[in-house]
Queue: 3 jobs
Job 1
Amino acid sequence: MKKYNIFFLIGLLLILGAGLIVSMGYPARARYFPVIVIIFCSILVSAELIKEIRKMYVFTAENRKDEPGPPVAETDRDKMSLVAAVSWIAGLALMIWILGFIIALPLFTFIYVKLNGEMWRWAALLSAAMLAIVYVCFVVLLKMPLYEGLVFLN
């Protein structure tokens, strides 16, 4: 367990708190969605923070044995999984910037599911569900225009 996990989670809570303060300055209808998302995210981050603190307390309470650190292969695997996660997020952000939300989210879902070894039918079904959820929730129910992307802005 590394202490930087706890500092990272505390930083996330501070950022969420700042977002809550900023969103309180919005008109009543505009602040509804950000406040709900911030509250749910704060609950999840707080639960993770409690879990990390408990792990640290249990680890320090035990009699520590002089154990060597993790094998090099395990550390390399962790770094590669971090690089993969950051790459997926960067790819999604790039797709949203170029294609917009309505096209990028289902396309990203399809690519991610298909590259993780699922069948074509399952990938297409999840992509269609993502398109329906995003369109109905944001465009129809909230009447919120979504970013259209560089390709479709003009």
Note: The chain has a mean pLDDT of 83.
Job 2
Amino acid sequence: MTFPTIPTGGRRVTGVQADTSATRTFPDLSGLTKNAGDLLIAIVIAYQSTATANQVWSGWSAGWTEFADFSQTTNGAIGAAYKWSDGTETGTISVTEAATITGHACFILLSIPGAHPSTPPEAGAPGFGTTSVATSGLLDPAGWGTEDTLWIAVSAGGEQATTGSFTGVGVTPPATYGSIVNTAISQDAVGGVNGAAAFKQANAASDNPSGFTHDTSDARNFSVTMAVRPAPAAIALTVQDADQAQTADNVDLVQHHVLVVQDATQDQTADNVVLTVGGGAVALTVQDADQAQTADNVDLVQHNVLTVQDAAQAQLADNVALTQHHVLVVQDALQAQTADNVALTQHHVLVVQDALQAQTADNVVVTPHAPGAVSLVVQDAAQAQTADNVALTQHHVLVVQDALQAQTADNVVLILPSSGAEPPAYEAYLRAPASEAGIAGSTGPAAASGGGRGGW
């Protein structure tokens, strides 16, 4: 074990209250150094109360538990309470002094690290004196035996007359005690008080300290001994080797990503282009024609199915044996972990972008062979395009049905003017080839009045 720490410096705070108010208020806890788990002790000392002996103090602030209440109706009173700190305490605490009050009060706040986390401090029988120094009785804590205990001797003095100079509790602690802390004297007046505390670490079952030095001239004094149990010793814990077996059943992943795009065949058919001329052929030039074909987007939604079969895991921990004053045995522990089927549905989107196809018709040339009225009729042209099925093989099959696109060109009609009209500017173009075609008498303009062309 390790002794509780003797409080020094900011771990002890003192104060006085120079009035006869029933509410006795301690110094602000903000000024006390403390950490979570520390044992806080609040000690109050009063000059006198007419309350029944050992029944002076009550109404401690919330969270504080009283463990000492000692008094005499014609002498002083000492009270004490404790609290395990959470490290954040601030503000003041208070306690109520009962009955008719004479004189003042003083306070000692202590913060003690290393105290037992659940055993309260204890206080022994008090001692009271007037003309001589009083000592407290033997303290043998009921809550523990011989351990590394922190012993605290507390004493107080009260001024009973103003003759001379009242010095109260001196600065010399009891034998074997040290680190004394003294409060101020509340006031140099009848009813003025001061107090002191001193400390000793000793591995003992009990203690009975001697007295402090005191002013006993026209003064009263009273004392008590307190004890703080140490925190329990660390326990050596040995954990034996632990074997854990984890078994995962087969995990089957079924996923099909088979996309089959069948051959695509497109047939384009242009119907006959017919030029009708009265008795002869005319040279017709059809310029290159570009036709744009656009295939709309095809959205492919693909489903992936992931199936994870049930998985079972077994965990086995061997015995963990703890040997101390008592034997702690942790039996074999078997843990079964089962994961139900996990189904994952995933969507993939395949987008086929717009497709542009260009079609070009070559030049068509018609050469005239004889004069006459010319009538050019280009019949409707129909083009059929066929895309074979696009099939996606998955758990489900996406079928894109045959698509048929029809393109239609309206009739193109060329009408040449009737007899007597002025021939168009391309007359020379039509007549020039006549000689080449073997037509007699069509070598100049004079032949235009002849037959064979129906007349301009």
Note: The first strand starts at residue 12 and ends at 17.
Job 3
Amino acid sequence: MYCTMATGSWEGAGFADALFGTGRPVLLEHAAVRLRTLMMAFQDQGWSPDRYEGLGFAWIVRSHAITFVQPARLDDEIVVEPWVANIKKVTSLRRYRIVNGTDATILAEAETDWAFISRTRMAPQRIPPEVSGAFQVIEAPPAP
């Protein structure tokens, strides 16, 4: 699997372990791919998990949604295109387009709504300007 971001790319093991005999990846693996993509995007902007932890903050998932358009196959090159759709006081919506890297066919479109929390209080925390300012908001999806 190959995932691209604005500032870099990474390769992973792929969906092979999540096919369950169907020849297609399952929802849980899609969520895991989106989480790994998000963590890499955070790190690209200087916000590693260690930095969040050191400041006493964390992101937690409020909701996930995914729409499957076309099936992925075992040996497909999968490209995950993430972007920040909005940043509010304590939440941020991240959207993802998952495409076949060979022919650019859209396989799925997804979004995850994240809440920013204080790790000590385990309650919503206003997103500090240094965090929100590190990410470009793209309201409309980028061109495929």
Note: Residues 1-24 have pLDDT under 50 and may be disordered.
